[in-house]
From TrEMBL:
Annotated protein name in UniProt: 3-dehydroshikimate dehydratase
VOC domain mapped to chain residues: 281-392, 420-560
Entry keyword Cytoplasm: no
Coiled-coil segments on the chain, per record: 71-127
Lineage: Bacteria, Bacillati, Actinomycetota, Actinomycetes, Kitasatosporales
Amino acid sequence: MRKSIATVSLSGPLSEKLTAIATAGFDGVEIFENDLLSTSLSPEDVRLRCADLGLSIDLYQPFRDFEAVPAELLARNLRRAERKFDVMERLGADLLLVCSSVAPESLDDDALAAEQLRQLADRAQRRGIRIAYEALAWGRHVDTYDHAWRIVEQADHPALGTCLDSFHILSRAGDPGGITDIPGEKIFFLQLADAPLMAMDVLQWSRHYRCFPGQGGLDVAGVVAAAVKAGYRGPLSLEVFNDVFRQAGAASTAVDALRSLLLLEESAGLAAPPAAAAPSGFAFAELTAADTEPLRGVLGALGFSRAGRHTSKPVELWQQGEARILVNTGAGGHRGGPALAAIGLETPDPAQAARRAEALLAPVVPRRRGPKDTPLDAVAAPDATQLFFCRTGKPDHPSWTDDFTGLPPTHAEPAGGVSRIDHIALTQPWHQFDEASLFYRRVLGLQADESLDLADPYGLFRSRAVAGPDGGVRIALNVAPAPGEENVRFQHIALATDDIVATARLLRERGAGLLPIPDNYYDDLDARHDIEPHLLRTLRESGILYDRDETGEFFHCYTPTIGRVFFELVQRTGGYRGYGAQNAGVRLAAQHAYQHGV
Ligand SMILES: O=C(O)c1ccc(O)c(O)c1
Ligand SMILES: [Mg+2]
């Protein structure tokens, strides 16, 4: 179906919004009145600009507080409407959204509302304009879509239809099933927004927390499916009032928005992009660094050996068990220190995974860097982390490892007991958290956990994990509370070990050190979990954190941060599937203290 977006959903001046909307690939726009009022472009200029960009103006909105008023007010409201019709004529827009009145003057009288809307539609029709009447969830007398429809039905005018808005319907737990009772041609417009489930005033919820479909907790696809079943064939149009998107860059938000619509079409059974080929494990994590010595030191202390060197690029392969870390000395890293640049995902069908990601607007990374390199399927995630879809060492597919030649191990000391990468934690830019979780979940085909709030000494982190069904791939997405140098963009690689006490001891013996954890933590651990005294002493001495649930236990500890990266060692027992979120506050505080030499 055609795809549109309301200009209120993006940041910046109208002209920049329009460019971002067209560049992302939308077909049309809803011009939000405030955006027109605050631009120096004339309506004719806006019309031309949209035409040049290939955008149709699908709706002009909103016209407020019109219906069910005393006669003298009606005359004024009709005059007000005529002036808006003038603007629409100049814009070349032929559909006006009228939202249900919130005015104290409006009367609780459906017959009057219908009669006055009929008069409005009559005047609109003479000017080639149609009216779409929408129930705001906080409308004074009309606050449900079925009520708005009853009034439209009663008015019975060809230039009057209804506008459905998924937020207004679902925020009040409305049943979208009744949509199929509305004749499709009387649904003049369909606005779509999701929202996280929150217990708050519905107007505040709508004006600040709407998000793109799939990023919240509302069944937006159910509304779309019902409207299409009713016969609606107009555009799917996003209308998202959101405090974060009002600040974030319009270009990236517009791409995020269009991706959510493509996924919504898939959810509603209206489109079938290439199916997901969900990853089953980590092939590698790639770190870039100008100065690789500290990184090599930590990897060596963790028991990794340098197992190969890329034949055409300045990249080393460090390996232990199935855990593989690529060290790239060619690119910058963060101020010379290491930064995570890429993740290799073990994927049943790499080409298929790349096709899906590309269809869902992920930028494709060039397939081949050097003339002899193995071709790779790779895309960029929303935070620009490169994702390589791999089949490592399988006879049916070229393997990225073919580009590495063997090197003798750097040292013969015993390996550290690390078997594989357990999870990778990515700190997302503050404005891209919802986009990232939608991307990892729906584009890659991972399952998302609940979103958690983790307390850092300088703010609250949101954190949400996505994982494959068997736990082979786990990615923890974190977001810092606000843009700031202090706590933005740390990434970490968690390594699974079968004997965390031994691995931690090895690290200390090799002089790499572990993040010190305050004594108070262990006193509390004892209080909470009644831990066996010998084990508690060992955890305390080693700086190992502990958590458990009904199914198993979790032990974890951290290396100091180098550049923007640190390593975590984790040991899981039984069916424990979490990440020790309980301990995140203590860990974050310990990292701040360590960083500042407290
Ligand atoms: O918040 C509002 O006022 C508002 C205006 C127009 C809409 O279409 C809407 O859904 C909400
Ligand atoms: Mg709306």
